[in-house]
């Protein structure tokens, strides 16, 4: 209700401020019997972790995950899984200078308007650091989806004006560069562009694409819980996102029905296939078994060193200079966050879909008829 | 859970198939004491109603709303408001020819995959007709928002390649043309374009923009219930939408932080204002009191007369010819649906925000300090 | 949220006032493929219907159910099932005399305190008539449970001081008497007692018991969603209930651990059985496959003709004389309501339990190990 | 959904096994601005803590609470409050002997039936230890309710056959004895009775009563969210409870309407008062401002040293001897748990009630008429 709980069956409840003692997540509704270890989760957290790239803040967060409950002898028990990450690097004094300032592009002002009282240290609850808890929960979701062979892949699709060229697309290259881009040439151009931004004390936006393969048909529910609606909500809940598209997205608005419709054919094995996938994997809000394809717009990092116009709580206009290194771009570290939010959405839809038909009930309870 | 219920406090539960006896919505959680009449609702339904324009299906639906409960002596009682629209124009036989066919761009195939059994008449539950219930509920939400002076305006921003020119923007013109566009020149061009599409037995996509004025600050909750996340979910749950943006949206991905950040200044009245509104009305997922601005991509009508490749349930590839007039474009009739979904989202956030602070509790219960 | 929606997967949303145009319920989340007809529902509604017994109000309500959506060619489609009952017998003038009076034992005063504005006609939303919608939804739930052979039986266990004698218990007799008691002798005594109450212009309380056979093991979730917790909530939400017990209930408070514990044995077929069922069918909030047994206390009808002390809204103490016939006892008509609430609770737990184990997921999606 | 989350606005998500690393709770939806310290919570935990009485297990749990998030400079921020208690006394080997045994009156068997895989150490998730997290959350709820002067008092009302005598009722004595009984004579008799039970290696049940003073009118929602329904669910979700009553409870079933109805009068200050409070504080499910009164039946401790009949997972009937000291009665330590569950229920209803009327909305948002 107050926004830190997500999901209907696979429910996650996240908590923690940027500079508090710790942050974490409780997962209620993970089925029993899933193999799960801290290593399964740590490997995704490491992708989000700062300090690994010339294009990310050098703040060493550590981000070591600990499982506190819900797993026994290496398998989930069906009871709540509590995951915690202790904050090692809390230097609150770094931030005291900003406690009465409303920084452009940050939530300082809106949190004050809403709550009247806020933890100002490092953006508190609205820090990007909050996403570590999502990634931890998402790793559990991905483990569960892997039982059915579902594979989620996200990557950086553009950085500022530099876009991945589909002709150069190399999925294997994604994990081999700090920018998580599937195109070697684009990476080089993007690195040059980001260096320029860093030199200007400025920052860059970008886009992330996410594809899901081996999705079972039938995920998503009519009307408000359409698969694309819940995916859109999930990725638009990541702090810096400004837009989301499924399939052809905004390009669909310029197409004709004849161009946009995906035509059906039977293949040689007698299965129905689509000749194209303009829809991006769903029809009527329900997956058809084809690849889910979505794209997310991420705004540039709002914390920049370049002097900006701002105000303080004492009624003064000020020229704001933010010191210290920040990520010159949010996108690369957000790739795994998008992946996690997609996984969390799909796992919930998958579990819900189990209750959609009388014949599934009969299967589970071994009912004759 | 099964997708036809939306909202946490102002909960709506919609029901009904395109060619069933009726369709409707139950609203649970509307505060008591709101003045409400059938006329308040009917005027929005009339904007969605078919048969009013050369660019919309001539099917006469009537769409007469009836309030069955929850309103007494002209005011809401706080108990569920049940709204019903009887279907007058049920010609099921029109559709029997298509019952074994999977039409491109429709949900025939996915509903069968999910449920094994579906009402095939006129797309059943996944018909655009379902949105009439949303519009009815949305009209109640808008009535409630009007108590605080909140104003929501949606309009057609583009049709195929024809876009509204910001320099010609005329808000008063929106309700004066069948396309609900705020630009006389664009309307002329769009009419020509749509006539061309009709002649080709084809259809067009387009975009809708929605602005909200006088929004109280503080709406939206941290992390998953960010205002933009819930708005994205709400509009992406409308059948034909393929993308959504807040503020600069995908353009933000190409901007630098210095360009995208909205700078703050105190105005002469000592109020904090933003010099720009690139963010589109929220920061950290919470409204700041500035205008909410969003944009939605709508795909072209999938039902076209032009021959398409399709399959049937008997394992055959077929050439599909759909007869009968359909909307050559979904956008104009969807304008009021977008407006409704935005209203439903905001009313729920508004009610939730009432519980966010101890001092609000003291106000409501007249507690001393 | 506002209290007229129940369930997490099999969600029901009820609406309607006693003297409004109609009342009804929308069920969202009923699995597709369930055979369902109006007759399935009507037969339960007829058990609740007034005017059938010398011990019930002669108000002829009719209570004819109509299915408006969600069922196609005799089977559910997985989309919302809307059920409606039109009110035939709306004589609002009968009630106008009481519109400014706060009747003892009724909700007049509390609804005014809460909402400031209420439909005073025949208790409006808080009328027992509201339960017709629950019974309609409950009939659908029972139909679904019957797929797995689950049988729910409720009956009158006591009327005022007259209790059913376990030695005379005759399940077949329940449906053969207006009081729905399983004991011919008790029925005679109860009839005499009720006649006395009627002669005094007074009313009687009583208790209802409900047993469920063939319950699958595993229903109920740890901590807050224990089977008994959700059953307690469900039956305590019926207007006139004042208490609920599972198994030995309050008697357990006087027993020792050795007496109360149900001992386990393997039977000849190698199945685990309990030697007793003091627990009433669950342990740790989860069903063990034995019979669920619960008991509900129902207060006497508050509307009595005997003169009572009351107040009106003008600040006056008054002597209240309520005219017209009312049920001298609520219990017999509430028997089917208890049955319905138990069914609704179990169906939701049953569907939730499908998602509790990885091996169930593999079964439904035909996943290899 | 999986049962460890409770509440619609003030949402709590509990986690942790008896012998895991830690247990805790996340509260999402606590309003901002509430003063809160660890001491506020610790004092309630200390009432539940074992090892303090001759009639409780000597296991030293410590139960030291730590606030990990959501509180800044001594006040809540409106973001999730994460509370943790580390388990100090994990001797898993103590329990290994029982890992293949199904103990009578415990959840060993049902957890295995449901999940196929469970943490058998000290009853795992279904241990009474789980309630420490509820008490921690309940302490926060009570702090919030105290802003409006609401006072909740629970106490032991009976132990086995020994009942509190209303004529000896002394509220101040409750916190002065290990049994939390408000009657010195009853305490003496109960101590004798419990000593007898301990000597027999047996255990005792009992009842708990809970009263709430200064409750605002208007809490509770029509139909399914009646105040008494949600209270019943809350207290029946405590592991060992077997029944619950409001006001006269089961006695109401034997009363006539004239006896049970609470008559209204205006007092000298022109306020409406009830001459009696048989209803226990609500009508139609909504509080009327009078005292809430409920009573809970608690079964005897199932873990007893006396030899019992049981089974193991290898298909054998066994004679079970459980060694080690257990509480001879659950009731005294459960008193604060009942208080906590009542507090959690009321705080949620209180927050929901803020959204029930248009005039409350106007108050919060300072809207003109």
From TrEMBL, chains A, B, C, D:
Enzyme Commission code(s) on record: 4.2.3.5
One annotated Gene Ontology cellular component of this protein: cytosol
Pathway(s) it belongs to: Metabolic intermediate biosynthesis; chorismate biosynthesis; chorismate from D-erythrose 4-phosphate and phosphoenolpyruvate: step 7/7
Cofactor: FMNH2
GO molecular function, one term: FMN binding
A family per Pfam: Chorismate_synt
Catalytic activity, as annotated: 5-O-(1-carboxyvinyl)-3-phosphoshikimate = chorismate + phosphate
Binding residues annotated for FMN, in chain numbering: 125-127, 284, 299-303, 325
Residues annotated as binding NADP(+): 48
Enzyme class: lyase
Co-factor remark: Reduced FMN (FMNH(2)).
GO terms of biological process kind: amino acid biosynthetic process; aromatic amino acid family biosynthetic process; chorismate biosynthetic process
Assigned keywords, A-Z: Amino-acid biosynthesis, Aromatic amino acid biosynthesis, FAD, Flavoprotein, FMN, Lyase, NADP
Protein family according to the UniProt entry: Belongs to the chorismate synthase family.
Function text: This reaction introduces a second double bond into the aromatic ring system.
Assembly mode: Homotetramer.
Entries under HAMAP family matching the protein: Chorismate_synth
Descriptive protein name: Chorismate synthase
């Amino acid at each position: 209700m107050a926004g830190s709980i997500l999901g209907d069956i696979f429910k996650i409840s996240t908590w923690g401020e940027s500079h508090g003692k710790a942050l974490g997540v409780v997962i209620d509704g993970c089925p029993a019997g899933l193999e799960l270890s801290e290593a399964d989760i740590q490997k995704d957290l490491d992708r989000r972790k700062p300090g690994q790239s010339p294009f990310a803040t050098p703040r060493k967060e550590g981000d070591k995950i600990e499982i506190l409950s819900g797993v026994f002898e290496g398998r989930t028990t069906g009871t709540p899984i509590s995951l915690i990450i202790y904050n090692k690097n809390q230097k609150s004094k770094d931030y005291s200078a900003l406690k009465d300032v409303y920084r452009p592009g940050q939530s300082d002002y809106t949190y004050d308007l809403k709550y009247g009282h806020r933890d100002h240290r490092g953006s508190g609850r609205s820090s990007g650091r909050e996403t570590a808890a999502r990634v931890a929960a998402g790793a559990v979701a991905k483990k569960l989806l892997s039982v059915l062979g579902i594979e989620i892949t996200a990557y950086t699709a553009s950085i500022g004006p530099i876009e991945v060229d589909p002709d150069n697309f190399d999925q294997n290259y994604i994990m081999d560069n700090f920018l998580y881009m599937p195109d070697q040439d684009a990476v080089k151009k993007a690195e040059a562009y980001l260096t320029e931004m860093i030199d200007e004390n400025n920052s860059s936006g970008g886009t992330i694409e996410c594809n899901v393969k081996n999705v079972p048909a039938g995920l998503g529910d009519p009307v408000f819980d359409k698969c694309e609606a819940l995916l859109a909500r999930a990725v638009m809940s990541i702090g810096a996102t400004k837009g989301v598209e499924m399939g052809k997205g905004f390009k669909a608005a310029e197409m004709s029905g004849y161009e946009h419709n995906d035509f059906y054919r039977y293949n040689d094995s007698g299965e129905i296939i689509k000749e194209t996938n303009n829809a991006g994997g769903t029809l009527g809000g329900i997956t058809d078994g084809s690849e889910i394809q979505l794209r997310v717009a991420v705004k540039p990092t709002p914390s920049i060193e370049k002097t900006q116009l701002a105000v303080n709580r004492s009624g003064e206009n000020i020229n704001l200079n933010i010191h210290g290194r920040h990520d010159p771009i949010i996108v690369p570290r957000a790739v795994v966050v998008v992946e996690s939010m997609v996984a969390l959405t799909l796992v919930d839809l998958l579990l819900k879909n189990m209750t959609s038909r009388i014949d599934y009930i009969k299967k589970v309870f071994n009912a004759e008829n």
